[in-house]
Design a protein that fits this description.
globular; Rossmann fold; 2 domains; 10 strands; single chain; alpha/beta; 42% helix; 3-stranded parallel β-sheet
């Protein structure tokens, strides 16, 4: 079966809309999210439009700041300083990637941890590692765990989870979240020996490696739950291209008990979890 990320994301947004209304009525707070887009990367523009639209749909305040690609690093830092000190802004997101002349790590470090709704600040990373409930958790990993629970139920205790990928954005944080769910977690990567055989032991397989359709049917344990984080564009005969995941969907679907499609799986959940983080930031710090 397919795990419908669009439907689950809509459920989450519906719940968040109720929480937003409660915050407004009980505390006079409307959660506010500001997204900064530097440059004109087409994919980033699409992502930002979707974030802005969905933020408004659940009753939150949405602000979008567009800055030209030649914006200096200092100008971006100055803008972040204003947002850090604005009590009406509960969440700050700087859309990545940034132009090459801007230090992404410095920009992430400059956002106040309590407004870091992407969950990338070292303080939030450390809190996640320590199992601290105060952490704002990266959105895609949150979405992965929620999708797994959608199929398997809330109790993931004892499941063997294999995560392919060790990035700070997905691989490491999703591994930590699965550990918090009492899974036994193995982190695999491009240098893992016998990678296919290892993946075939997983009850939950999370593919976040960035290689189109790398995971084949013989990599998957019959009855496993497969969460495909990859978004890769491959060429087609008509020249338009198409999006595929890191998992060969047609090959794996008959073997897996459940699998997330691409598109329509993890992607919608990422934005929904961004809104969730913003509402949580407003509740804690607003």
């Amino acid at each position: 079966m397919n795990i419908d990320g669009k439907a689950l994301a809509q459920e989450l947004r519906n719940d968040l809309a109720v929480e937003v209304k409660q915050l407004q009525e009980e505390r006079g707070i409307t959660p506010g999210l500001t997204v900064i887009l530097v440059g004109e990367d087409p994919a980033s523009q699409v992502y930002v439009r979707n974030k802005v639209r969905q933020t408004k749909e659940i009753g939150m305040i949405s602000n979008e700041i567009k800055m030209p690609a030649e914006t200096s690093q200092q100008a971006l830092l100055d803008e972040l300083d204003k947002l850090n000190n604005d009590p009406a802004v509960h969440g700050i997101l700087v859309q990545l990637p940034l132009p090459k002349h801007i230090d992404e790590a410095l920009i992430i470090d400059t956002i106040l941890p309590e407004k870091d709704v992407d969950g990338f600040h070292p303080m939030n990373s450390g809190r996640l590692c320590n199992g601290d409930a105060a952490a704002l958790v990266p959105c895609t990993p949150q979405g992965c765990v929620l999708l797994a629970k959608k199929h398997l139920g809330d109790n993931l205790c004892g499941k063997h989870a294999v995560v392919i990928g060790r990035s700070n954005i997905v691989g490491k944080p999703v591994s930590l979240l699965l550990l918090q769910e009492s899974c036994t977690v193995t982190i695999a990567h491009s240098r893992t020996k016998d990678l296919a055989a290892l993946c075939a032991t997983a009850d939950i397989l999370v593919a976040a490696v960035g290689r189109p359709e790398m995971v084949k049917a013989d990599w998957v344990k019959p009855g496993a739950t497969v969460i495909d984080v990859g978004i890769n564009r491959i060429a087609t005969e008509d020249g338009k291209g198409r999006l595929v995941g890191d998992v060969d969907f047609a090959d794996v679907e008959p073997v897996a008990d459940a699998i997330t499609p691409v598109p329509g799986g993890v992607g919608p959940m990422t934005i929904a979890c961004l809104l969730k983080n913003t509402v949580e930031a407003a509740r804690r710090f607003g």
